[in-house]
From TrEMBL:
Gene3D superfamilies cross-referenced by the UniProt entry: P-loop containing nucleotide triphosphate hydrolases (3.40.50.300)
PANTHER family: ARSENICAL PUMP-DRIVING ATPASE ARSENITE-TRANSLOCATING ATPASE, ATPASE RV3679-RELATED
Protein's recorded name: ArsA-related P-loop ATPase
Protein species of origin: Microtetraspora glauca
Lineage top rank: taxon: Bacteria
Residue intervals of the ArsA/GET3 Anion-transporting ATPase-like domain: 13-169
Amino acid sequence: MSARDTDWDGVRLHVVTGKGGTGKTTVAAALALALAAGGRKVLLVEVEGRQGIAQVFDLPPLPYEERKIAVAPGGGDVYALAIDPEEAMLEYLEMFYGLKRMGKVLTRMGVVDFATTIAPGLRDVLVTGKTSEAVRRRDRSGRRVYDAIVMDAPPTGRITRFLNVTQEVAGLARVGPVKNHADLVRGVVASPETAVHFVSLLEEMPVQETLDGVTELHDAELPVGGIFINMVRPTGLPKDVLDSALKKRFDHAELALGLKAAGLVGESADASAIAQALAEEVTEHAHRTRLEKRERASLAKAGTPRYELPLLADGTDLAGLYELAEAIRAQGAA
């Protein structure tokens, strides 16, 4: 595997967040493939219990274990882990208190579920703790087990609280294993080895939520990564045509003649009506292109690297994931 400079050299935990509907899980999966390319080993972690990773890779629901799910370009491996808070709590009890058997009893009694329900922050601590453990883990020879970890994280609206919850827990538990565990997690999440990436569309609401999320992370002193602009449509038409459409100077008669000359309409067809319909679509496209240009300019104000991923005409299947992974690598994000 040859060395390759990227925008995120030295980053080992890539946290991916985004407003619902922006394709957050898809981008996280593509990023994992991109990071694994060339013979690396990457763990893709899901923390919300939605089985989104399984759906994206067209797999059965994933169990609470790390298992290989894909081979990246160049022979790298992508593993996946769907974190179950209940199982994570059992691990926690065994790790810090040697109480795994007692933890199973508590689970049967419903105490674990009760605890995570009345204290939602505890659930976040457990899943971030499991992810942080994977970041720190080494094999018997002392080498890192994974070259990188990608977390399919909660939506932008709660990402700062999700990542900052360990600091709150550490403040409540002044001493003991809980305090030590929270400090370890915070040490990973807030370190230069972590980057929190945002997924956005070129639409007003996702863009504003992304900018708000970047500001909140800065205020919380958490590491901001890049912005992945997803589902980008090709412009397709020359600038002068788009400008004419916006100024309502689009010549329908000329378009009708062009359609006939190109043999795109038959002699009996109403070329004028077809030209009118096409002109309306061109005008709509011109307005959308102008709005997207404005939203690009807004995202540029965040001052962080931006990467554009194409809208996949055939939808996001496995082939589409590899296409997105290649786009991510080509832009230097992995």
